Amino acid sequence: METKVEFRAHLKARRDALPAAAREASSLAICGHLDRLCRDHRFTRIGAFWPFGSEVDLRPAVAAHPGWLWFFPRVASTQPPRLAWGTEPLEKGQWGLMEPASAQHFLPPVQLLLVPGLVFDDDGHRMGYGRGFYDALLAQLSNDILTVGVGFETQMHLPVPVEPHDWPVMGLLSERGLRFLKTED
Hints:
By secondary structure, the protein is an alpha/beta fold. It has 4 helices and 11 strands, in the order H-H-E-H-E-E-E-E-E-E-E-H-E-E-E. The chain has a single domain, classed as Rossmann fold (3-Layer(aba) Sandwich). Helices cover 26% and strands 25% of the residues. The strands form 3 sheets. The protein has a 7-stranded mixed beta sheet with strand order 3-2-1-6-9-10-11, sandwiched between helices. Strand 2 and strand 3 (81-86) form a beta hairpin. It is globular, with a radius of gyration of 15 Å. The N and C termini lie far apart (34 Å).
C-alpha cells in the first residue's frame, strides 16, 4: 500500500471479507467484554457508535442496558472536523451514518468513549476513514475519560502511520477482550 487511501481501502476490504456470522459472534463477544468493563468501573455514561457497514455492532450492549446513557456522534462540521453528541433517537445523517436527532454536546459527557477505526496499533494509534473527527475529539478530551479503540481482532496490532495530529486511545477492545495500553503519565 503506497498511500493512506489505498491502505484504508485494503483495510476496509479486509474487514468486509469477514463472514457475517463471524462478525456477529465477535460483536457479541465484544459486547460481553464491554459489559464487564462498565460494571467493573461503574460506567453508566458511554460514548458509542452505531455500526456502519461491517463495523463492530454495539447495539446488543445498548439494548441490554437501557438505563445507561449512551451518547452517539453527529457530524457538526467537516471543516474543521467536529462531532456533536446526543442520545437516541437516531436518524440517518451525513454519509448514511445513524446519528442522534438532537446533539447538544461538543464534548461527550461520558466516562467511557468507544472509538471506531479501520486499524489499531499496539500503542493505541488508529486509522479511521480519514476525515479527522476522532483525532480532533481525542485532542480535546480530559484524561479522566477512558478512551478505547473498538474493532475485530483482525484489525488490531497492525502498523499505523502516525502523524503529529494523531491521538492514541488508552485501550483496545476486540473479541479477545480488553487490553489497557501503557501511557506516558
